[in-house]
Automatic annotation (TrEMBL):
<feature type="domain" description="Replication protein A 70 kDa DNA-binding subunit B/D first OB fold">
    <location>
        <begin position="17"/>
        <end position="106"/>
    </location>
</feature>
<dbReference type="Pfam" id="PF02721">
    <property type="entry name" value="DUF223"/>
</dbReference>
<dbReference type="InterPro" id="IPR003871">
    <property type="entry name" value="RFA1B/D_OB_1st"/>
</dbReference>
<protein>
    <submittedName>
        <fullName>Replication protein A DNA-binding subunit B</fullName>
    </submittedName>
</protein>
<keyword id="KW-0238">DNA-binding</keyword>
<dbReference type="Pfam" id="PF16900">
    <property type="entry name" value="REPA_OB_2"/>
</dbReference>
<dbReference type="GO" id="GO:0003677">
    <property type="term" value="F:DNA binding"/>
</dbReference>
<feature type="domain" description="Replication protein A OB">
    <location>
        <begin position="135"/>
        <end position="230"/>
    </location>
</feature>
<dbReference type="InterPro" id="IPR031657">
    <property type="entry name" value="REPA_OB_2"/>
</dbReference>
<dbReference type="InterPro" id="IPR012340">
    <property type="entry name" value="NA-bd_OB-fold"/>
</dbReference>
Length: 416
């Protein structure tokens, strides 16, 4: 067994031995490139059930992937303890573990009987709404499986390639109680044992714990998104599952196969259609609500420069003054090195244009442009981009009035 337990860990190098079970293990890939591994994540448990998050970064991922298996117990030594990540923590612990090239992993063949298999912090289904887009922790839920969809292939806005998707609906076992859809993505969608759950539901309710999910909302409907961090425990012998099973058995119904759910949802998240400005300029706003198009434009001319040398005190323009710069503001008159302000864009800039309500043409002319992609150069200071393109969009405002819910995706390529 180990020398210490998880609560005894302190920030810094640790040469003591920890005896831990790998409760969860997953790989976090680049959302834009599935072939690029960003880091490997683990949830580790000690013999008393204490938990901690651990991460392995390249190039060490390949080294330890051959040594670690989910569910097995290891002696861990020579690792780094640091403060936990600010966002997307899988367990409640202010610290986390980082593997180093000196970290040693020794497998324990004789598993102590008291070692827990899983850890979770359940949120009731009827309390998910306040956690929509909550980033600090992943969300864990418990429910009875009521509906399962087939695996479908969809293409989302964030990816150019298609991704697999499956929806599992769970409830709190009461007919009048709330339900929630758990949307599984990629490998999680294909490995979910849907056939077995459907078959076993004929004789008993299937109680499932989903861990590592994110709460999302679309069209006022709350759902859970299960990516690589998501894992499930079906009919796990824990008190919460036993209690829910007791209430579900009195009104049990087999799981329903929903053939149309995935197909219907895929149309909602489909990639916007490519259009030209002339195609959308005079579209009827009332007949094209909630529609989206992808438009590529090129900025041919900008009236003012993208950046300027600013005074460090008052941020007004400076002018050369010998081998340094002098502020043009008479009340400031500061002399010294300036601070470049503005944004330089050596690369294409993708933006999203969200039109305002139909009642205000002035609001449309100064429509908000939100940056969706970070240029390769450093962002020194945010620029009022709508002012830069106001003249360009003014020509469109007379015919292209869209509803509040419509969105126009635009890729802007600055002229050389």
């Amino acid at each position: 067994m180990g020398d210490i337990l998880i609560p005894s860990l302190m920030v810094g190098d640790c040469s003591r031995t920890l005896c831990l079970r790998v409760s969860r293990l997953w790989e976090f890939l680049d959302p834009q490139d599935d072939s690029r591994l960003l880091h490997t994540d683990l949830v580790l448990l000690d013999e008393e059930g204490n938990s901690i998050h651990a991460q392995i970064y390249p190039p060490l991922c390949q080294q330890f992937s051959a040594l670690l298996d989910e569910g097995r117990i290891y002696n861990l030594k020579y690792f780094l303890v640091r403060k936990a990540n600010r966002f997307y923590k899988p367990v409640e612990n202010c610290n986390m573990i980082s593997f180093t090239k000196w970290t040693t992993v020794e497998v324990i063949l004789q598993i102590p009987p008291a070692f827990l298999v899983c850890t979770y912090n359940l949120t009731p289904i009827d309390q998910l709404q306040p956690r929509v887009d909550y980033k600090e922790y992943f969300t864990d839920v418990l429910g009875v499986v009521s509906v399962i969809s087939q695996v479908s292939s969809v293409r989302t806005r964030g990816r150019q390639a298609e991704v697999m998707k499956r929806t599992v609906t769970i409830s709190n076992a009461r007919d009048t109680g709330p339900t929630v859809d758990v949307v599984l993505w990629g490998e999680r969608a294909t490995t979910f044992p849907a056939e077995q759950v459907h078959r076993d539901s004929g004789s008993s309710p299937q109680i499932i714990i989903f861990v590592g999910t994110l709460v999302r909302s679309y069209a006022d409907n709350v759902s859970l998104s299960g990516g690589s961090s998501c894992k499930w425990y079906i009919n796990e012998p824990v008190p919460e599952v036993n209690a829910l099973r007791a209430s579900a058995e009195t009104n049990h119904h087999p799981v329903i196969w929903d053939q149309g759910k995935a197909a219907a949802e895929s149309t909602v998240i489909a990639v916007p259609e490519h259009k030209k400005l002339k195609d959308i300029k005079y579209l009827h706003p009332f007949e094209n609500k909630k529609k989206e198009w992808l438009v590529i434009v090129k900025v041919l001319k900008i009236d003012s420069s993208w950046w300027y040398n600013a005074c460090k005190k008052c941020l007004r323009t400076t002018k050369p003054h010998g081998d340094t710069y002098k502020c043009t503001n008479i009340s400031c008159d500061n002399i010294g090195s300036p601070t470049p302000r503005g944004t330089r864009y050596p690369s294409p800039l993708k933006t999203i244009l969200t039109p305002p309500s139909l009642s205000s043409l002035d609001e449309w002319r100064s429509a908000s442009l939100k940056k969706m992609w970070t240029p390769s150069s450093r962002l020194i200071h945010p620029v009022s981009f709508q002012e830069k393109l106001q003249i360009y969009w003014k020509s469109l405002s007379s015919g292209m009035l869209a509803s509040l819910k419509a969105q126009l995706f635009i890729a802007v390529f600055p002229s050389k």
